[in-house]
Amino acid sequence: MPRLSPSEAAPTPDEHCAKRRQILTGARAVFLEHGFDGASMGEIAKAAGVSKGTLYVYFADKHSLFVAIVEAEIHDQGWGSFDFSADTDVERQLRGFGQAYIQTLCKPRSSSAIRTVMAIAERMPEVGRSYYERVIAQTVRRLGEALKRQVEAGVLKIDDCEFAASQFMMSCQASLFLPFVFQATPQPTPERIAAVVDSATRMFLAAYRVPSSS
Amino acid sequence: MPRLSPSEAAPTPDEHCAKRRQILTGARAVFLEHGFDGASMGEIAKAAGVSKGTLYVYFADKHSLFVAIVEAEIHDQGWGSFDFSADTDVERQLRGFGQAYIQTLCKPRSSSAIRTVMAIAERMPEVGRSYYERVIAQTVRRLGEALKRQVEAGVLKIDDCEFAASQFMMSCQASLFLPFVFQATPQPTPERIAAVVDSATRMFLAAYRVPSSS
Amino acid sequence: MPRLSPSEAAPTPDEHCAKRRQILTGARAVFLEHGFDGASMGEIAKAAGVSKGTLYVYFADKHSLFVAIVEAEIHDQGWGSFDFSADTDVERQLRGFGQAYIQTLCKPRSSSAIRTVMAIAERMPEVGRSYYERVIAQTVRRLGEALKRQVEAGVLKIDDCEFAASQFMMSCQASLFLPFVFQATPQPTPERIAAVVDSATRMFLAAYRVPSSS
Amino acid sequence: MPRLSPSEAAPTPDEHCAKRRQILTGARAVFLEHGFDGASMGEIAKAAGVSKGTLYVYFADKHSLFVAIVEAEIHDQGWGSFDFSADTDVERQLRGFGQAYIQTLCKPRSSSAIRTVMAIAERMPEVGRSYYERVIAQTVRRLGEALKRQVEAGVLKIDDCEFAASQFMMSCQASLFLPFVFQATPQPTPERIAAVVDSATRMFLAAYRVPSSS
DNA sequence: TATGAATGAGGGTTCATTCAT
DNA sequence: AATGAATGAACCCTCATTCAT
C-alpha cells in the first residue's frame, strides 16, 4: 500500500529527532528554572510546543525526561571546549583557562544546572554522580594533564597534578561562585573574574612554580 | 497527690515550645532530604509525629515553615563555633580552622542544607541570600579578620584579607566538597581532609607569608 | 467550703448570660455577612472575643448557634415595633406603616438576614419557616388586623384583609427591595421610599376604599 | 467499515460541548441545592459523572463554574418567553402574564436560583447584579413596554410605566412567593395563583385604567 | 505519531469539633 | 466555666500519567 504523502504517515527519523530536540529544549528551560519537583509536565509541554501526550511518546516518564535533560546539559554547556594547548606559558595558560572556567561556571545556565542537579543528587545519586564526573571531574582531569605537561617540562613541581588542578579551580571561585548561586551577588563582571583569577594564579605559581635557575 | 514532674501538668509555654521544636525537627528531616517542592506537609506531619492540622497552628504555611527551618539551620549548624584565637601560629591556625571548616561543610547535614537552600535560591532569593550571608560570608569575614591580625603582626602580607580568606576556604575544598555533594564520592575521611587542608595551607603561605628575616 | 470570691468560682447567671450575648453578637455579625457555610467558628470566636472552645460551652454545634442567631434576629430586628394605632386616617396609616416597613426591610441588617435565612431555607426548612412566620407573616397579620378595623369602620371594603395586607406590603417593595438585595442598586433613600409607598397607597385605596358618600 | 453513528467517532467539539453541558447540569443541581459555599467540587463531579480533575479542564475554578451556572440559569429559566403581544385586552394581558410570571417564579428551580444568587450577592455583587438585571429587571422592562402601549392606546393612564410594571409584579407575589421561598408553604397551586393574580389585576386596573367614556 | 480529554491520587490548607487542663 | 492545642476529615486544586482517536 503506497503512502499518499510522507507527511501523513510515519515520520522520518529526522522529524523524530527534531521533535525530540524540541521537547528537550522546552524541558530544559522548565527543569532548570523550577527544579525537578517544581517543574510540571504540563508546563514542559507548553514550553516545548507539543501536547502533554507527546512527551510520553518520547520519554517514559518525568524521571527519564529529566535524566535526558541532564545528559544534554552535560554535553551542551561548553565545559569540553576549554583549550589547554593554546598557550605554553604556564601563567597565561592558567589565567586563560581560569577566566574561561569561571565565566562558564557563573553563567545563569550553568548555575541553574548545578543547582538543579545538586538538589536532586540525594534522591538520584547516579544523576549527580554522572554530572559531576562528566562535567567537573573531566575538566579537572584535563587541567591536571596540562599541569602534568608543565611538570614534565620542568616548569612546575607538583606531586598530584589532578589534585592541584582542583585546587586551582576552587581558588578561582573565591568570592565569586558561591555568593552568585545563593543569589547574594549578581553575576560577576569579566573584570572581577580576571582579578580573582589573577590572584589565584599568583598564589598557585607561588606554591608550585619551579624557581627559574637564572 | 504530688505530681511526678512538672512537664506532665503545665500545658503552656514549655509544651508549646516543645511541640514547635518537634515540628521543626520533623520538617528539617523532610525538607533537607527532599527539598522544598519534594517535601509534603503530610510527610512532615508524620515525621514530626503530629497531625497535619497542627502544623498550621505553629506555622502559617509551607513557606513559613521552610524559612523557619533554614533560619534554624543557620544557627544550629555550628559555623559560628570556629575558634580563631586558639592559636597564634599562623600555620597551625589555618590548618586548625581549615579542618574544622571542611569537616563541618562535608557533614551530611550541611551538604543537605546547602543543596536545599541553593536549589531554592532562584525562587526565594532572600532565603538564599540570608543563608549565604549568615553562614558562609560570616565565616569568611571572621577568617578575614584573623588574617588581618596576622598581617598587622607582620606575619602575612595581604591586600584584601577577606578575599584571601575566601581563597583559602575554597582551596580547602579542593577534591572534597563538590564530589561529595554530587554524590560522586563518600564523605571524606578526616585524614583526607587533613591532607587537603595541609596542601591548601602550604599554597596559601607560599603566596602570602612574609619571608622570615632570619 | 466557702468561696473566696465570686469571680473565681462558678459564674453567676448574669455573667453566663452576658457571655452568651457576647457570643450571639459576634456570631450574628459573621453569619449575616458570610452565610451559614461561609462563616467559620474560628472567625465567630474572634468576633465574639472568646475562645473557640467557649462557643461549644454555650452551643452544641454550629447549627445550634445559627438557629439561636436567627431566633435573636427575629426578636431584634424591629419588625414588632410598627405602630398601627397611631393614626386613624387610613391613608396616613398606610403611608406611615409602608415607609417604616420598607425602611426596615431595606436596612443592610435586614437584607443580610433575609439573604442568609432564605439561602438556608432549603436545607433547614424549620429555620426558614420560623423566620417567615414570626417576622413577615406576623407583620402581615398585624397590618391585616388594622385593615380589618378600617373595614369595620366602613372605610375600606376588603374580603380577605390578611391577603390585602400582603398585597399592600408587596406593592410597597416595587422597584426597591429586589434590586437592593441583588446589589443592583444602593440602599434606597427615604425620599424614594416615600414616593413608592405613596404610589402603592394610592393604588391600594383606589381598589379598596369605600367611595365617600358626599 | 462504516461507522454506526458519528457520535461514536469524533471526539472533538460535539463531545466537548456535551461533557461541558454534563458538568453544568451536575453543577447546577449541587449549587442550587447547597449554595456556593455548601457545594463541594467533589459532589459536583459526582453529580456530573466526571472526575474532579475534569471539572478543571472545563472551568478554571469553583467561582468560574458558579458564574457559568448562573449565566446558564439566566438564559434557561424561561423568563424570556413571556408573550405580551398575545392579547390586546389589558385585563387578559395582565392576568396571562401575571400567572405565567408567578408560575415561573414559584417553580423550585427558580426559587433555588434566587436563593442561591441572592445569598452570594453580598460577596459577588456582579453576579447578583447580572442576575437581577437580565432576569428580573428585563421582565419588568418588557412589561413596562407593554403597559406603555396600553397607555398610548388610551387604555391606561400611567406616569412611569416601568415602575408600574414592578408594582404589578410585586403585588402578584402577595402571599405566594415569600412564604414559598422561606419554606413556610408548599408550591402554590395554579388555582391559588390565578386568584392572587386576579386580585392584583383588579387592584392595578382600579388605579390605572382610564374610565370608559360610555 | 500526535493529540488532548480524562483521571485519581495527592498536593496545601481550612475547619468543626474535642479534650485535658 | 473557659481555654486553646490538637485533630482528621474535607476542602479546592494540580499533576503525572493513560488512552481512544
Automatic annotation (TrEMBL), chains A, B, C, D:
InterPro entries: DNA-bd_HTH_TetR-type_CS, Homeodomain-like_sf, HTH-type_TetR-like_transc_reg, HTH_TetR, Tet_transcr_reg_TetR-rel_C_sf, TetR_C_Proteobacteria
Gene3D superfamilies given in the database record: Homeodomain-like, Tetracycline Repressor, domain 2
Residue intervals of the HTH tetR-type domain: 17-77
Statement: the UniProt record of this protein carries the keyword rRNA-binding: no
Pfam families with a match to the protein in the record: TetR_C_7, TetR_N
UniProt keyword annotations, A-Z: DNA-binding, Transcription, Transcription regulation
Manganese in keyword set: no
DNA-binding region as annotated in the record: 40-59
GO MF annotation list: DNA-binding transcription factor activity; transcription cis-regulatory region binding
Name the UniProt record assigns to this protein: TetR family transcriptional regulator
